[in-house]
Amino acid sequence: MSNSQTSILTHYTLGEEIANSITHGIGALLSIAGLVILILAGSIYGNSFHIVCFCIYGISLILLYLSSTLYHSLSGTMARQVFQKLDHSAIFLLIAGSYTPLMLININGVLGWTITIAVWILAIIGIVIKCLFISRFEKLSLFIYIFMGWLCLFAAKEIILHVPSHSLQYLVIGGLLYSGGVLFYVWDNLPYNHGIWHLFVLGGSICHYYSILTSFYHKILV
Question: What is the pLDDT of residues 24-47, one digit of tens each?
Fold first, then answer.
């Protein structure tokens, strides 16, 4: 293991790692429950296409929070390096996974599919970068995260037309929480900065989950 990799893997204190593990451990449990609710909603009110979209989204949520929890819990083990790559890669998966039901259920059509495919291509590129160069290109990865997150602005008009106002509000709030949390992610000399970032991520996930679920109900039932 290189010195740069070692510094990344041992960056946090024990107290910080406990906080990091707990915050996203809670997220993992909520994600599992959330996936069950999504599958039930799709089964009762939707169809197989809705269920597939929800499964992609729900599984991406679980992967992010579970891999993050394991990465921060396995301090001092060789498995930690593997879960670090999974943890960073899962961010790309969650962004693309979140787009999938938003674009394909609410927007669909050429625009919905184009945005979704573009986001998944970016996610694959980001994952390859993370798996091959985990300790390099941090700024590039961060740029891709943010660019992917706000790529939906290219479909802003259609989103406003098809997503109800209360769902849209939580969609925007979630995006702001995700983006705002980046400030703490890069604030390395702030104690517990990573745990604080985790809280922003958790808040963003909750907002986006609510937005996706309520916009689905609105489309199907109203």
Answer: 999 999 999 999 999 999 999 999
| CATH at residue 93 | 1.20.1070.10
- 24 assigned ligand-binding residue: no
The dihedral of CA 204, 185, 71, 141: what is its sign?
positive
Q: Is 162 one of the annotated binding-site residues?
A: no
Domain that holds residue 157: 3-221
User: How confident is residue 10, by pLDDT bands cut at 50, 70 and 90?
Assistant: low
Handedness of CA 207, 178, 28, 131 (dihedral sign): positive
Please name the helix (run of DSSP H) or strand (run of DSSP E) that holds residue 165, with its range, or none.
helix 165-185
- Tally of domains in the chain: 1
* Cβ partners under 8 Å of residue 165, min gap 6: none
* Identity of residue 36: V
Provide the token pair at 193: 């900065």
Query: The pTM is what?
Result: 0.91
Query: Are 140 and 129 within 8 A, CB to CB?
Result: yes
DSSP 37-73: HHHHHHHHHS-HHHHHHHHHHHHHHHHHHHHHHHHHH
Task: Give the position of tokens 């041992």.
Answer: 10
